[in-house]
Design brief:
- The chain is 41% helix and 14% strand.
- By secondary structure, it is an alpha+beta fold.
- Strands 2-10-7-8 form a four-stranded antiparallel β-sheet, covered by helices on one side. A three-stranded mixed β-sheet has the order 6-3-9.
- Strand 7 and strand 8 (107-109) form a beta hairpin.
- Helix 1 (2-21) runs antiparallel to helix 6 (178-221).
Length: 225
């Protein structure tokens, strides 16, 4: 069951990899900054989050930015005044977030309802220009094996690894026409949804098997078997 769960994820990753390594005609080489909102820059967020502020501004950390999704569990809230000091990373919705310190590999698109939130120092905000690139397409591209391998090659540090913003800006990017980006995103979304469904099924089976094992052990030790 565990192997099947892993295989479902591996199959999606393999398909994702093939799209960005076996691209067709019409893809154009460009740079990450060239795809961004001209009024904003790629940068990281709040350096010291301070104490938890119950009614404060939600602040996404590396533990929240997962591979192709944002997990709000355990999200910290910071003082509004502190968030205002880092106004350049106050989210508007539609940006692409990339983990650049600590737990690397996380990349996801900011949902519209997250507008007004902020991010920590460990997370870079890529404020994409939606006229130039589909944010979901960019998230898939950065999350693909070829991009993750490139980023892994420029990471620095031993005990606490990280990627410099300057290096992130140099990430090789190739994009097709907007209509093709939209088609690829729709295809990957469908496969990702099915993959998550299968992973959910296998995860529930694992939990059921664990419960069965516990029950059998209890019966064995109590002499009921």
């Amino acid at each position: 069951t565990e192997k099947n769960r892993q295989n479902a994820r591996a199959l999606f990753e393999s398909h994702l990899q093939s799209i960005f390594t076996q691209r067709g005609e019409g893809w154009v080489e460009t740079t990450l900054p060239a795809l961004c909102d001209p009024l904003r820059i790629i940068t990281y967020g709040v350096i010291k989050l301070g104490d938890e502020t119950p009614s404060g501004i939600p602040c996404l950390r590396t533990s929240n930015v997962r591979w192709l999704r944002i997990d709000t569990e355990g999200m910290k809230r910071i003082a509004p005044s502190l968030s205002a000091e880092y106004s350049r990373t106050i989210l508007q919705g539609g940006e692409v977030l990339v983990n650049v310190r600590g737990t690397l590999g996380g990349v996801a698109v900011v949902e519209p309802e997250m507008a007004g939130w902020n991010v920590s120092r460990e997370v870079a905000v890529v404020p994409v220009d939606h006229q130039r690139i589909n944010p979901s397409f960019l998230a898939y591209l950065i999350g693909s094996g070829v991009s993750q391998q490139w980023l892994g090659g420029v990471k620095k540090g031993a005990a606490y690894t990280g990627i410099n913003i300057e290096d992130l800006r140099l990430l090789p990017i190739a994009v097709p026409k907007h209509s093709e980006q939209k088609r690829i995103v729709a295809e990957l979304d469908a496969i990702a949804s099915e993959t998550q469904r299968l992973e959910g099924i296998y995860q529930r089976k694992l939990e059921a098997l664990a419960a069965l094992k516990k029950s059998l052990l209890q019966q064995a030790f109590s002499g009921q078997l």
